[in-house]
Design a protein that fits this description.
Layout (H helix, E strand, L loop, with lengths): L25 E7 L7 H10 L5 E7 L15 H13 L9 E4 L3 E4 L3 H10 L8 E6 L2 E6 L6 H4 L1 E15 L5 E8 L3 E6 L4 E6 L8 E9 L4 E11 L7
Parallel strand pairs: 1-2
Antiparallel strand pairs: 1-3, 3-4, 5-6, 6-10, 7-8, 7-9, 7-11, 11-12
């Protein structure tokens, strides 16, 4: 069910793709579940959105629908906590799926492409701080540029989200779910207060994934604000011998 609220709150690995993607227009998160009857259209929509190079899409299965004898192996409580934190910032008590959060600031129906497009338009320009992730030898170098604005006073989080580019999940009845850019973890790596920051991450730590997304997000884990910078880098699997 959808609550009709739209408040804007404002590895040395030879096969690594070392060139980072261009700066994104928007970061679009999807909170979903295989036990949610309204979610498959949203999952399909996000497969299509993931093909747009100017969008960073992130799919996070929540464990809200888990019950004894019925558990989503891909769901993580961290994803449910993230969705709940967004709702808390908006003073909302009820969580729903499929929910999209655009640039950490605007909620939208995760299956409604027009509503997502509206949220992207309303948050245009929020991604204002340059963020880069580049492979250098055995490391991924994360660089966050300098900036001004409220986040320099309240602080912002630098977070890494490793993801699988594509994942198919067999369901009962012969159906198959297809996720694109399936997030597997949320890893805080530092803070930002306006001055440029650079950090090296061991590439080998992310060898099991297809890539990582780096988010610069105002607020705290408990009260997340707008995403003010983002980057991604793809990590290709090793070629077969």
């Amino acid at each position: 069910m959808r609550l009709k609220s739209f408040a804007l709150i404002v590895i040395s690995l030879a096969t690594l793709t070392s060139a980072a993607h261009a700066a994104p227009r928007a970061v679009v998160e999807l909170f979903t579940s295989p036990f949610c009857s309204a979610c498959p259209p949203a999952d399909e929509l996000f497969v299509k959105l993931a093909r747009q190079p100017d969008l960073i899409t992130l799919v996070m299965p929540v464990d809200s629908f888990d019950r004894p004898g019925r558990k989503d192996a891909l769901a993580k409580p961290e994803f449910t906590d993230r969705q709940a934190a967004y709702a808390d910032v908006r003073h909302e008590d009820t969580l729903y799926t499929p929910e999209a959060i655009v640039n950490g600031a605007a909620p939208a129906d995760g299956a409604d492409k027009d509503e997502i497009a509206q949220a992207i338009a309303q948050t245009n320009g929020v991604l204002s701080v340059p963020v880069k992730a580049v492979a250098v030898g055995d490391d991924i170098v994360v660089s966050v540029g300098g900036g001004t604005g409220p986040a320099t006073k309240t602080g912002a989080m630098i977070t890494v989200l490793p993801y699988m580019a594509s994942r198919q999940v067999p369901m009962r009845g012969g159906e198959t779910l297809h996720y694109a850019n399936l997030v597997r973890d949320i890893i805080p790596i530092g803070n930002w207060t306006g001055a440029p920051v650079q950090q090296r991450l061991p590439l080998q730590s992310f060898a099991a994934y297809d890539g990582i997304v780096v988010l610069l997000q105002a607020g705290t884990r408990e009260r997340p604000g707008a995403i003010i910078g983002a980057a991604r880098i793809a990590i290709n699997p090793r070629p077969k011998a």
